[in-house]
């Protein structure tokens, strides 16, 4: 039997006095498909907001880069690249000389992205890198081509404050002076709008969370009965945190074959699955400064729900 990072995380998280499973484990093939459905939900505004920013403000973003040519657009965790395509299309129309460098740990994801991008923009120069962000950023730091790094989608909101500093300081270390970072931040807004984006009426976010239990069953011989769990989430407007949980509907013991043990769940016991932090401008500026960056500009959607924030090293 192979013990994976997922096995270790489940052993640790379900043994803790307050149980948890990290949201990084949402994204197996099935979870990634459900996430695509989330991004298509009308309540889940971050996707359309960022799409709008990258479609309608591409020129303004490009003007703020102030790069000599050629330059690299480096995408960290590219996904399907649909939003980035808008920016790349504008650059291509303007005749800019640049390379698109998506970085992803999954060779399969990169291949799908390359096929997609080449179909949409046949003249695009794509230089994909497969591996973890930091190793691949180190490779890019060796050349003197200026780089714009993209960390889109509001993924930064899924990190706790110390992890955010960790991540940004590692990005900073791998960047050359003058390189830029464009990061998506979901902003604090009417709490009802935020709660609806996560507590959706169709139960898609619930399915996204419950898939963690299916994944344990598939990958480590778990005996979870997913119907015996529900989903709960809560937005606290005082600290900007959406926290998501699985809830055990009864007192139960669940055996996981690969871990050779059972885990006990009390009735109504929670398993914390995700943090989705919403930021204020002051917090974004503080986090940039703390990690050595200077804020160049905030690019906002028309409702001011979301910002792609451009920073320079
Ligand atoms: C990927 N990440 C920014 C999403 C979020 O909003 O926290 C993941 C997600 N979780 C539930 N809905 C969407």
Q: Low-confidence segments, ≥5 residues, pLDDT <50?
A: none
Global geometry: globular
How many strands? 12
For the biggest sheet, the summary is: 7 strands, mixed
Radius of gyration, taken over Cα atoms and rounded to an integer in Å: 20 Å
Strand order of the largest sheet: 3-2-1-4-5-12-11
Q: What is the average of the pLDDT values? A: 95
Q: How does the helix and strand content classify structurally?
A: alpha/beta
SSE series: HHHHEHEHEHEHEHHEEEEEHEE
Which kinds of small molecule does this entry bind, naming each only once? N,N-dimethyl-L-histidine
Helix content: 40-55%
The N- and C-terminal alpha carbons lie at a distance of 45 Å
Fraction in beta strands: 15-25%
What features would you highlight for this structure?
313 residues, alpha/beta, seven-stranded mixed β-sheet, three-stranded antiparallel β-sheet, 41% helix, globular, binds N,N-dimethyl-L-histidine
Descriptive overview:
The protein is α/β, with parallel strands linked by helices and 313 residues long. Helix content is 41%, strand content 24%.
Helix/strand layout:
Layout (H helix, E strand, L loop, with lengths): L4 H11 L13 H12 L4 H12 L1 H8 L5 E6 L5 H12 L4 E7 L2 H14 L8 E2 L2 H9 L5 E5 L9 H14 L5 E7 L4 H8 L5 H17 L8 E8 L4 E8 L3 E5 L4 E5 L4 E8 L3 H10 L3 E7 L5 E7 L1
Parallel strand pairs: 1-2, 1-4, 2-3, 4-5
Antiparallel strand pairs: 5-12, 6-7, 7-10, 8-9, 11-12
Helix pairs in contact: 2-10, 3-5
């Amino acid at each position: 039997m192979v013990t994976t990072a997922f096995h270790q995380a489940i052993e640790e998280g379900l043994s803790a006095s307050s149980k948890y499973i990290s949201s990084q484990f949402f994204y197996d093939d099935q979870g990634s498909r459900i996430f695509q459905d989330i991004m298509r939900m009308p309540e889940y505004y971050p996707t359309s907001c960022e799409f709008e920013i990258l479609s309608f403000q591409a020129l303004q973003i490009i003007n703020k880069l102030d790069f000599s040519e050629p330059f690299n657009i480096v995408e960290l965790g590219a996904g399907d690249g649909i939003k980035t395509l808008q920016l790349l299309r504008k650059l291509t129309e303007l005749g800019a000389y640049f390379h698109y460098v998506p970085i992803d740990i999954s060779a399969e994801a990169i291949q799908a992205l390359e096929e997609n991008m080449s179909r949409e923009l046949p003249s695009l120069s794509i230089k994909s890198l497969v591996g973890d962000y930091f190793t691949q950023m180190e490779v890019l730091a060796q050349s003197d081509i200026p780089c714009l790094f993209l960390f889109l989608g509001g993924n930064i909101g899924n990190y706790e404050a110390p992890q955010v500093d960790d991540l940004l300081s590692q990005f900073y270390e791998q960047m050359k002076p003058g390189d830029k970072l464009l990061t998506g931040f979901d902003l604090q807004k009417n709490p009802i709008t935020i709660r609806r984006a996560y507590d959706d009426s169709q139960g898609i976010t619930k399915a996204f969370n419950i898939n963690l239990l299916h994944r344990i069953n598939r990958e480590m011989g778990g005996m979870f009965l997913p119907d015996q769990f529900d989903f709960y989430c809560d937005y606290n407007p005082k600290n900007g945190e959406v926290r998501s949980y699985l809830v055990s509907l009864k007192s139960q013991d669940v055996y996981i074959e690969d871990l050779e043990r059972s885990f006990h769940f009390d009735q109504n016991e929670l398993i914390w699955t995700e943090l989705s932090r919403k930021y204020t401008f002051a917090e974004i500026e503080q986090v940039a400064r703390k990690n050595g960056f200077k804020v160049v500009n905030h690019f906002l959607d028309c409702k001011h729900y979301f910002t792609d924030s451009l920073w320079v090293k």
